[in-house]
Design goal:
Shape of chain A: globular
Helix content of chain A: 25-40%
Number of strands of chain A: 17
Largest interface: A-B, 49 and 49 residues
Bound molecules: NADP nicotinamide-adenine-dinucleotide phosphate
Structural class of chain A: alpha/beta
Oligomer: homodimer
Amino acid sequence: MSNNILKLGIFGFGCVGQGLHNVLSQTKGINASIEKICIKHPDKERSLPASYFTTDPSDILDNADIDVVVELIDDAEAAYHIVKSALIKGKAVVSANKKLIAEHLEELLFLQSKYQTPLLYEGAVCGSIPIIRNLEEYYDNDLLNSVSGIFNGSTNYILSKMKNEGLDFEVALKEAQEKGFAESDPTLDVGGFDPKYKLCITLLHAFGLLVRPENILNIGIQNLNDQDVNYANQNKQKIKLIAHGQKQGQNISAFVLPTFINPDNPLINVHNEFNGILVESAFANQQFFGGKGAGSDPTGSAVLSDISALTYGYKYEYKKLHQTTVVTYSTQQLLEVYVRYNDKNAVQWTDFESINQSFESEDYNYVIGNIYLEQLLQEEWQLNDNISIVLKAIVEDSPNIVQEKTNNAVVETA
Amino acid sequence: MSNNILKLGIFGFGCVGQGLHNVLSQTKGINASIEKICIKHPDKERSLPASYFTTDPSDILDNADIDVVVELIDDAEAAYHIVKSALIKGKAVVSANKKLIAEHLEELLFLQSKYQTPLLYEGAVCGSIPIIRNLEEYYDNDLLNSVSGIFNGSTNYILSKMKNEGLDFEVALKEAQEKGFAESDPTLDVGGFDPKYKLCITLLHAFGLLVRPENILNIGIQNLNDQDVNYANQNKQKIKLIAHGQKQGQNISAFVLPTFINPDNPLINVHNEFNGILVESAFANQQFFGGKGAGSDPTGSAVLSDISALTYGYKYEYKKLHQTTVVTYSTQQLLEVYVRYNDKNAVQWTDFESINQSFESEDYNYVIGNIYLEQLLQEEWQLNDNISIVLKAIVEDSPNIVQEKTNNAVVETA
Ligand SMILES: NC(=O)c1ccc[n+]([C@@H]2O[C@H](COP(=O)([O-])OP(=O)(O)OC[C@H]3O[C@@H](n4cnc5c(N)ncnc54)[C@H](OP(=O)(O)O)[C@@H]3O)[C@@H](O)[C@H]2O)c1
Ligand SMILES: NC(=O)c1ccc[n+]([C@@H]2O[C@H](COP(=O)([O-])OP(=O)(O)OC[C@H]3O[C@@H](n4cnc5c(N)ncnc54)[C@H](OP(=O)(O)O)[C@@H]3O)[C@@H](O)[C@H]2O)c1
């Protein structure tokens, strides 16, 4: 794509679509103009002249004048068809739809390669924070150990309110919804699905790993209560919903879990709707990125940065996917978790490798125990409303991972 | 530069040079090999075979096999000649030398353009934090309002120790030197010169502004004492040495000043030798980058990332330098400062626009007053050992800047 004016066809004119329009119209020096906007409800009142709008996707997809399709709708299934057909028609695509991207990563890689047309999606992961671009470009030859962080603004807002104002989960959720942070179906946020989709995308750019969302554990924050918050307070910790991916040897483990965060961890200072990401590498040590994870203008501005990158011919190279050492996804990571429960029989105790502490009283019971990620991924008892799980620590030298490492080594030297 | 193996000629094998070697030798998949290392003292013991080393620059500069010159010496003047002649000979250059780069920015731009060869210097600004790359690539079309932060690890280490352990400045400095954070000539650090050089480079990539270091105010931390630290404590603030650049209309103001940092500012959590940068943009809101600002491996790893970028043909485009709206450097920014003094006559009170508060006692006197940046830049009274200056606030709507804006507007519409 040369340095000409890009002609944009936009799908969706909601929170992010309008943010993009706002940001674009106030930014000088970007060579892009909006040609058409495809929306769902033709009768909604709009802030732009009616001539911009259509409800017919082919007005964009079959318009030879349009170079770039910007997909900003809230329906992942419809978005999949739009993005796919745009790529097949050789149009560059920018999307902020983490669910669509995470669920179709392999096919989207294939389509980009087959039709030689780029797909950029910085806005899909942590809004305004340029994490994908940094993982792709800057950390390409560094030895990354882990990427973890607060990838979801709504849940962080809820947890901040529970901690700082003592609000109940339900009240805090309602507030987040009123402020427009939470999705209309809050399960995506509070159940940890949204950060999991983002983690999926991140794992590809950080480690060259392709893994399907359903193979990654996500435990949300919906079962947390003031007892859990108090327990954290006593240890000068905070509970945050953390998406975590880490590399040990060639093994990558990953999960989304409520986690006790220590006072010296920069993530403890990420408040309300902000996001934060910690990147640990062998040589650069720990690096921290923070910023607004969502919202109209911040996300619009990330989308605009992708559009701008297209004017310079930028595309993801997926360099780490092509590296010689192949990484494998592993759920053999041992975790130390805090489990609060009402009914002792509701927990499958045989799942645990060890119980390190236990506390019982009239109205508050918990244990601290070691359990394999694999076990948590297979079980369902932890979904019980009266059970909450919070990660205390990732057990170093997880026996099963060491096992795998040794096996690999044996195979390699054989 | 194609995807072949890059042949490196390195100048300097001290802290950063050895870090680079360490990082490079442990990183698979980077297509670069070290051909020759030019050092100063041939008799020093080295960790590599003698055949690597030379003291003759032409062994690198006139070696047609060498594609990339990596300049990592501690002598800015010698470095200038090395970098210049490498560029003239058409070799790509990577440097971590902020003094050299800041002092010769215009000429280095010209040489890169004339000889069509790239110069990269991510390691020169905030060590491992990829700020230049982000400003250059990611924030190119966003409306940046300001870039500010803790750009110097040694001074931040000293200030952290004064605050947390009540150490005196001299004791904390000695500790920083022992830990290897401080330069052998500590004036560069504690006088705020090092962060000023970094700020110079940052202003070019953030705003497209070229300004000479001597035109930027730098007040260091050498005069701060426990009274200043206590004053900050009382307000729940911390003193940090802040490099700051901001845009108002087409005017850019910039300075390096000890600054009271509020508890809600992410920079307050940047401890010891870490660096942190806040980027404020019109739409993406506030973004924060944190990480190790110095040290052997972290800086070596930033240098390696530049080398790796060369293998993909990366160069700085200096896009903002070519934007249509021209920015101007302005020192007409009004600042609210805290001034502690022993002798009332040592301060030039007529420099102030207003005195907002004053406190006198037997052994502690201070005023809070408004003063133009221009005034501080011209005067010398503030260098007096018994005077300390700490920024309280940047006065919004600085009258003289508004004046300039109006003038510009008149000229433009005339
Ligand atoms: N909101 C954020 O802060 C944020 C941050 C990062 C990423 N994202 C992602 O960005 C995307 C958009 O989010 P949003 O918050 O902007 O959603 P939204 O405010 O609910 O807006 C959705 C828009 O999509 C349109 N739409 C829905 N189905 C359509 C279809 N089949 N064809 C054409 N248009 C259709 C709607 O049309 P009508 O106007 O006619 O109803 C509406 O304009 C989602 O993937 C979301 O996950 C959002
Ligand atoms: N240290 C950090 O954390 C850090 C971080 C960011 C940027 N930087 C920058 O990186 C550069 C190097 O810093 P450093 O800490 O690595 O310095 P250093 O430890 O003092 O090492 C300096 C090296 O330069 C060599 N040298 C000096 N003059 C030379 C000349 N004329 N020709 C050839 N070699 C010469 C020295 O040779 P001998 O070994 O023979 O004495 C030594 O190997 C400086 O520009 C510094 O500002 C440093």
